[in-house]
Design a protein that fits this description.
Layout lengths: L2 E15 L14 E8 L3 E10 L9 E13 L6 H26 L12 H10 L14 E4 L7
Parallel strand pairs: 2-5
Antiparallel strand pairs: 1-4, 2-3, 3-4
Length: 153
Amino acid sequence: MNTRIINYIVNEVAFKANPLPQGVTNFTIKPNIRMDIKKEARTLSLSITVAVKGTETEPTPFDLNVRLTGNFAILDPAASVDEIRIEASKTLYPYMRAYVATITANANIAPYSLPVIDFDNAVATATKTAPNITNPAKRGIDAITIRPIDEEV
């Protein structure tokens, strides 16, 4: 284990129920997931933003925007940046999944669960190619952005 979570906070939440057009019972929710990472000598800050927004052609039963930030202690400074990113993502993302499911359940609609993400492959892809992953369909989601560690959160 190279990291330890210190704390996390929900920075921002917005939820809006959408009336669905007459006769629409099937819909596809396409979350946009963005991760901003800032590393310092012995700490790491990871901010996850999830946005769901329906359109006229692809309606959703709700619009949602949630930002959650976790702060981590780096226990092994010799660990690679990729190892630290993966561990922090694996630790914090389940909190986001649980929070989104709770929000939707408390809105008296069927709870929505964010997709499971294979961070081992997602982070490796992000660091080897570009900060914007262009083929998220491989992971079963529509958009995930993992920004470089040297950009500001």
